[in-house]
Amino acid sequence: MVTVAFVCLGNICRSPMAEAVFAEHVRREGLEDVIKVDSFGTSAFHVGNKPDKRTISTCDKNGTPIQHRAQQIYPHHFTKFDYILGMDRENLGNLKCMAPKNSTATIDLFGSYRTSNDLNRIIDDPYYGGQNGFDITYDQVTDFSKGLLEDIRKNHL
């Protein structure tokens, strides 16, 4: 079993969208029995909340099912997941600071798995902007999901 966790600040915009999109790629490839996906926030701001309405509507209009409640990442997750992927440099820095000494996870930017150089590796937080930011985020997580799945196939399956 390969385990993947996507992480942003509050776990209501970027990381649940990344989780939903990647899970859909996994499902389409018939790999849901060998790849487990989840998402978290580095903060507890929105724990228990559903994803932002714009995240849900962006996923819906692209035919991507999304079911999630915000949750916070904790030190024990760093030995439970194979990949812990932050959306931006601040998330990545927070994750590296949080990681216990016995961490076994690959901690990286999700954008490190991009397949298109036309896309920014950093997934900016769309929360305070308009719908366009969520559309850009969707394009990024779709591309990065392809690259991550390639990496998992090459290194784990």
UniProtKB/TrEMBL annotation:
Known catalytic reactions: a phosphate monoester + H2O = an alcohol + phosphate; O-phospho-L-tyrosyl-[protein] + H2O = L-tyrosyl-[protein] + phosphate
GO cellular component, one term: cytoplasm
Active site: 8 (nucleophile), 14, 125 (proton donor)
CDD domains xrefs: LMWPTP
Keyword vocabulary terms for this entry: Cytoplasm, Hydrolase, Protein phosphatase
Matches recorded under Gene3D superfamilies: 3.40.50.2300
Hydrolase as UniProt keyword: yes
One term of GO molecular function: protein tyrosine phosphatase activity
Family to which the UniProt record says this protein belongs: Belongs to the low molecular weight phosphotyrosine protein phosphatase family.
Family annotation (PANTHER family): LOW MOLECULAR WEIGHT PHOSPHOTYROSINE PROTEIN PHOSPHATASE, LOW MOLECULAR WEIGHT PROTEIN TYROSINE PHOSPHATASE
Protein name according to UniProt: Low molecular weight phosphotyrosine protein phosphatase
Organism: Wickerhamiella sorbophila
